[in-house]
Amino acid sequence: MKTLLPTSTAGSLPKPSWLAQPETLWSPWKLQGDELIDGKRDALRVSLQEQELAGVDIVSDGEQTRQHFVTTFIEHLNGVDFENRKTVTIRNRYDASVPTVVGPVSRTKPVFVEDAKFLRQQTKQPIKWALPGPMTMIDTLYDDHYGSRENWLGNSQRSLIKKPKNLKRQVSILSNLMSPHLMCSLMM
What we know:
The chain is of the alpha/beta class. The chain has one domain (33-187): TIM Barrel (Alpha-Beta Barrel), CATH 3.20.20.210. The protein is 34% helix and 22% strand. It contains 5 helices and 6 strands; from the N terminus they run ααββαβαβαββ. It has a 3-stranded mixed beta sheet. The protein has a 3-stranded mixed beta sheet with strand order 3-5-6. A hairpin with a 3-residue loop joins strand 1 (78-90) and strand 2.
């Protein structure tokens, strides 16, 4: 029998204290090198097990392999300078020191595919992978290149839309493009 309203999680799940400082935004990893890779995978397994024990129908990585929802994706984009940081007000809620867009934003290789493959190997359940949408990325960067949100948004969407397609080719997955202004889901 098919589940009428399948359950899932929203947002990140807490990281174990041995991996990163709990309840700290942009908390640095406590491990390095191969230990960090193993630690992230162990945390993903724990998160997955907790979801399965709770009866969650569509499971996720719990964002255990990401330091931060948005910046982990942005770190893989060209045109973004993490050394040249500016302070911006994010959604009229808080000020944050963010990277600066200094050139055309593009992506030359897939992001998260290996982590998604690993999650797929751990479970037979449907999985989803939350991705930052264009407006979320724009809200989390300082623009020193495009000059307008419209120009920037058009470019960001082209860079981002490739992402779910890369994940779809690698893993059977539901990708959530998370953006408070632009919410959409692609069933894959």
